[in-house]
Structures are given as C-alpha cells and as structure tokens.
Specification:
This protein is mainly alpha-helical and about 500 residues long. It has 25 helices and 4 strands. The protein has helices spanning about 10-15, 45-60, 70-85, 115-120, 125-140, 145-150, 155-170, 180-195, 200-215, 220-230, 245, 250-260, 275-285, 290-300, 310-320, 325-335, 340-355, 360-370, 375-390, 390-405, 410-420, 425-440, 445-455, 460-475, 480-490, and strands spanning about 20, 95-100, 105-110, 110-115. Strands 1-3-4-2 form a 4-stranded mixed beta sheet, sandwiched between helices. It is flat and about 65 Å long.
Length: about 500
C-alpha cells in the first residue's frame, strides 16, 4: 500500500471549506426556495465549475488517498446518504479521502466532499462517520456557500475562485518559500471570514443531515455522538483539531440540539459494516510512520483475542513490513472463514504475488473475480498485478470493460493508459491520457494528447473519427485564451 506524506499545509484546506467545527447555537432558517437569490451570486453551474477548479488543485497536491478499497467505501456510504438528502436530484456528489491526521471533513462547491484520514480513524463506529458525511451533504444540498457569499455581498465569483485557488496552490506545495506559506495562511484567514458559516447554516446542516441519516438506516444519534468526541477531546492527541478550528467549537447547546432531534426518530440498532472496519484499518496502517510501528500497533493484543478486522489489519501491516508469509496465512484463514469479504480475497492474491507465487496469485484473483465480477477495487488490484507480471493486454481489456460500466477516477484512467501503453496500443493510450487531462481540467493538455493519437501510424479510421469528434466537442468549452493556446501548440507541434 503506497504511503503518502502528510503536509501541514493541508490544514489550510480545512480552514477554507465547510467544516464540522464552525458554528454555535442560533435559530434555524427554512430550506432555500428554488430560484434563491444566491443564484445571482453563484449559480449551480458556477458552483460546479468552481468545485472542479479547486479539485484540480487538491489532486495536484498529492494529498488524495488513491486506495481503491477506501475510496469505494467512502463513495458507497456517501451516496447512500446523498440519496436521502438530495431528493430533488439537483446535486451531484463526489466523495474523496485526504491524507491528513486532522480530524475534519469539508464540502467544496459542486458537491465535492472530502474526509480526512484522521477523521476516519477517530470515529468510533460507522454511525459517527455517516453523521459527519450527512452533515457535509446537507451543506451542499442547502447551498450554504452560495448563500453565505450572497449574504456578505463582498466578493465576486471571480475573486472567490482566485482566493480559493491560491490557498489550494499552497496546499499543493507549489512553492517551498516561507513567504508563500505565510501568504497562503493569511489568505486562508480572509477566506474564513468571507465564507464563514452562520450559526443558522450549521444548525440547518445538522437538521437536514440527521433526517438523511435516519432515512438511510443509520442511527440518527451518530451525529451528536461524534460532536461529543470532538468537544471532549477524546480523539488521540495527533488527531485533534488544529487551534484555528478549535476557535469555532462545537458547543454543548449544539450537541444537545442534535441529540434532541435524533430522539424524534425511532431508535435504530446498527452494526458496523465490515467495509467500514476494512477502510478504517487500512488508513490506520497507512498512517503509521514505519512498517514496524504498524506491526506493533496490531500486535498489541494476542492474535486469538482479535476480531477479524483486527487480524486483517495485522496482515496488512505484515505485508507492509515484508512479512508476506505471515500475512498470507492470515488472509487464507480470513477468506476461508468469510468468503463474502472482497478485501480478504484481494489480500490473499496480493500476498501470493509478493511471495513470487505468480500462478497461485493469478488463480486467487480469478476465483475472486468469479465471485465478484466487475468489482472496482478487485479489478484495479488484479490489473496492477497483471501489469506487474507482464500481461498488459489482459489488464487493458479488463480495465476497459470495468471503466465502460463504472465512472472512473482520474487515477484509474491513468492506469488504463499505462496498460494500453504496455500493450502497444499507442493511439488508445494517448486517448486515455487525453481523458485524464480533461478530467483534471486541463483542456489544452487533453487536446494535445488527442493530436498525438491522430499521428500514430496505422491509425484505424474509426479511431480517427472518434478522436477528431472529441476534439471538436472539447473546443466548444474552451475560452478564447485556451483556443489560442491550442492553436499555438498545433503550429509548433
């Protein structure tokens, strides 16, 4: 599992966005009417464009967790909640995980919702995690960013976009200069003042979120429960809120309000899903500074007294430490005991591969694929294994089948481009890279890859038509400056 370094500048991101910690008691406001005056300041289309622009910076920062098992889980639970809060279907959502020990979650314009690894680790159960996500979903459905900007009337869309982009450039580590970091922090403070949630916004997000929480089958007490975790400082020291966010504490009145609202719903007795435990455990392992630290964490308790999820964590830690034989024995036991858990099959196949038992690893992947066809994390792991053992053609075909049926992330598109390159499919590899650049917002860069695809020898006519049609389509969304840049590139190409 790839270890991603944590940058302290990621804290700035949580200062800009819609966080759990901001807010204090006040009266509620009604749901916004369709055609809210906020539209005059920031339309839904503007919000989506601004959100995509910020996400480009987030991706460039290297802070995104690209673990497909964790990403799949967060999106699964997030969309389950969004289906209840987004009843009119007017909002699209994308959920992602940021590698940061800060206990926080945030909503960006356009329905992009981020969860810090520190928060995932700090939650005590799945209901608490769902409570956090439902709160952030409510911020999006109630359009709190647009409404806050409209209320202040102090900033234009453009100046807001520039400010947020500048801050996130600091998160991305665009410059190591201390002055640049100071500017980013100063801009973060200004942004916090300009896009600060009102008390009523926070209470509204709580109210709408608790309703969605209950409707989705979670314990509605999960939100208030996690607020108590934050307010009491019961999280491990390294995962506590930064001082800046602690200046906007979750008050006892707000906790009481959340608890009281939850009692309006029938009591729910829930059990954590195995996927919650898997995702949280993977982040715990990944968050340890060294493989030895990860192993020590999961060896604190004797193996025979551990739960299956704890044993899974021990196996993952062993793999990170290169103790693949020991990890393999645990994965074999877990997969045999509960073959319905995809993560156990992936772990088994991956550990066999690390032991250089290639045929056994491929057989384990095959068996898993028969049980869970087109499962995204499984196909991603299997494809990476196929590339490693020199079977790029099969990896390319498998990924193409998956990504034609499941919306891919940019990193998954890069993976299929790598598979196509290794398989000698130069035209398709360039096409996939073009789509990657389009997904991260670089239209000019994407078109340049399509032009490379058009220059590949022995290009099939159907490919030429497809690539040219894609260029024509993208041109419709380009600014004058981008069109000129594209023309200059064509002249020098």
């Amino acid at each position: 599992m790839r270890k991603i370094s944590v940058r302290k500048s990621a804290i700035v991101l949580s200062c800009v966005c819609l966080t759990l910690a901001i807010g204090s008691p006040a009266a509620e406001v009604n749901l916004p009417d369709i055609g809210s005056p906020a539209d005059a300041v920031l339309s839904k289309n503007d919000e989506a464009q601004l959100g995509r622009a910020i996400m480009r910076q987030v991706r460039a920062s290297g802070e995104l967790v690209e673990d497909p098992q964790v990403t799949e889980y967060i999106n699964e639970i997030g969309h389950r909640l969004a289906a209840q809060a987004n009843t009119d279907g007017n909002h699209e959502f994308t959920f992602f995980v940021v590698d940061s020990p800060v206990v926080n979650a945030f909503a960006l314009p356009g329905g992009f919702i981020g969860v810090h690894t520190g928060l995932l680790e700090a939650t005590r159960n799945e209901d608490e995690l769902a409570g956090v996500l439902s709160h952030e979903v409510a911020h999006v459905t109630q359009r709190h960013i647009a409404r806050s900007i409209h209320a202040s009337q102090r900033q234009s869309i453009l100046s807001t976009a520039i400010m947020l982009g500048a801050i996130l450039a600091g998160v991305a580590g665009a410059s190591g200069d201390a002055l640049q970091g100071g500017i980013a922090v100063a801009q973060g403070t200004a942004a916090q003042q300009q896009i600060n949630f009102t008390r009523s916004n926070e209470y509204e997000a709580d109210r709408v979120g608790i309703s969605a929480l209950a409707a989705a089958g979670f314990d509605p007490q999960g939100m208030g429960s996690f607020f108590e975790v934050i307010s009491r400082g019961n999280t491990p020291h390294e995962y506590r809120m930064p001082e800046f966010l602690r200046t906007h504490p979750v008050s006892s009145a707000r906790i009481a309000e959340a608890r009281g609202r939850a009692r309006d719903y029938a009591p729910v007795h829930t059990t954590d899903s195995i996927t919650y435990g898997i995702a949280r455990t993977r982040m715990i392992v990944n968050g340890k500074d060294t493989p030895e630290d990860a192993v020590r964490f999961f060896e604190r308790e004797a193996y025979e007294y551990q739960s299956d999820v704890e044993r899974y964590g021990r196996a993952i830690a062993y793999m990170r430490a290169g103790r693949n034989d020991e990890a393999n024995r645990i994965f074999e036991e877990l997969a045999s005991k509960d073959p319905s858990v995809i993560a156990y099959h992936i772990g088994l196949a991956d550990s066999l591969l690390e032991m250089d038992l290639i045929s056994e690893s491929m057989a384990a992947f095959e068996r898993a694929l028969e049980l869970f066809p087109r499962n995204l994390p499984l196909v991603i792991h299997f494809s990476e294994a196929l590339l490693r053992v020199g079977e790029p053609d099969r990896a390319h075909k498998m990924l193409l089948d998956l990504l034609n049926n499941v919306p891919p992330t940019p990193e998954q598109v890069r993976l299929i481009a790598r598979a196509a390159t290794a398989a000698g499919e130069a035209a398709e590899a360039n096409y996939y890279m073009a789509e990657y650049y389009f997904m991260v917002g670089d239209l000019v860069g994407g078109v340049s890859f399509l032009r490379r695809a058009l220059q590949v020898p022995d290009l099939e006519e159907i490919q030429r038509i497809r690539f040219e049609a894609r260029i024509d389509f993208i041109r419709q969304f380009m600014s004058e400056e981008q069109l000129q840049q594209m023309q200059r590139g064509a002249a020098t190409g």
